[in-house]
Amino acid sequence: MSGSEHIIKSYDSELTRLTGEIVRMGELSVTQLEAAIDVVDRRDERAAQRVVANDDAIDQLEQEISHDVVRLLALRAPMAGDLRNVFAALRIAADIERIGDYAANVAKRSIPLSMVAPVAPTKGLGYLAKLAAAEVREVLVAYRDQDAERAYQVWKSDAELDEAYTGFFRQLLTYMMEDPRNITPCTHLLFMAKNIERIGDHATNIAENVWFQVHGEPLDKQRTKRDFTSSPELGKLGE
């Protein structure tokens, strides 16, 4: 094997290892989200604190991946498409780290939520989390397989999460208007739901990076946005 062939093979194996680490980090972030929803359902403060503490593992992985990327840039000096792969890894790891943060935020909010009387809309949070978790898992597969079309489908599917979030938002506002005692728990749920909606946004960021990684150009299509929570229409709910 010539020196250049050895360098290429070595670079490929390092990039494969880096991709595997990022996918593992992504799976950990999804597990965190599912654990956060579980503690909401069980109203378990101690378990919620464990979920929050576990976010450190995702942060540590992101730091290790950033270090690996810098080392790869310094030692291999990748060009063109290879450089896209390396920078995509860095950006995707950052998005996953934020997903982990949002999952931890959901767990944090579940602690004060468990201290007030339960409200019926709480169950709707699980549906939002299910959609978000599916998005993240699907985009991780797209990243692992370098499947731009699969990434594009995830990018489009975020509209479903936006729509579900808007519906949940409306439901919570209605509950708060019907009974002032619902204001405190529903406010916590509003913040938790927004965190989950943001997880979907980061999944679309990853999808865009996968598209760019494969095609070398931005995903410039127009995505349907169905988050209408800042729409003036919501002011008509009490009419």
UniProtKB/TrEMBL annotation:
Annotated ranges, domain PhoU: 22-109, 129-210
Predominant place of localization: cytoplasm
Keyword list, A-Z: Cytoplasm, Phosphate transport, Transport
InterPro entries according to UniProt: PhoU, PhoU-like_sf, PhoU_dom
The organism's place on the tree of life at top rank: Bacteria
Annotated SUPFAM superfamilies: PhoU-like (SSF109755)
Localization per Swiss-Prot or TrEMBL: Cytoplasm
Transmembrane portions of the chain: none
Family: Belongs to the PhoU family.
Subunit relationships: Homodimer.
Protein's job: Plays a role in the regulation of phosphate uptake.
Entry protein name: Phosphate-specific transport system accessory protein PhoU
Name of encoding gene: phoU
